[in-house]
Amino acid sequence: MSTDPDQIYVKTNRYLGIYEKTHDHNRWNFNQDKAMILLKEVEATKHRNVRTIAKAIGKSRQWVYIYLEALASIGAIEKVDGYYQIISKERVWAIGSNIKKGILKIERTGANDPVITGSIKAKVVTIS
C-alpha cells in the first residue's frame, strides 16, 4: 500500500481508497488545508474542468474530482456558466461530513432545472 494517499487511483469504491492508522480506513481523510489550496486555485483562475485544476495544483484528476464533490456537497463551490465558482469558504471545516455522490454531474447537466427534468408525455394514436 502506498504511503502517499494522494497518489492512489481507485476505479470503483473510490471512497475506500485511503488507509491511515489514525483514521477510519473506510473513508477518505479530507484535509481542510488541501481543500483551501483547491479553493484558492478556483478563486484565482476560471476553470471549466477537473483536468486544468489538477494540472495547476499538481494533483490527480480523481483527487480533484473527489474534493470538488465534497466541497459542492457542503455548498462551498458550484459550477456557474460552465466555470467552477466559490460560494462560501465558511463550511470548509465540514468537508467530507456528507458527500452527495454525483452532485457535480447534476449541477453540470442542470438536472435541478424543472424545465429540463419535466416529464415528457406522449400520446399514442392507433390508426385503424
TrEMBL record:
It comes from the Bacteria. This is Uncharacterized protein.
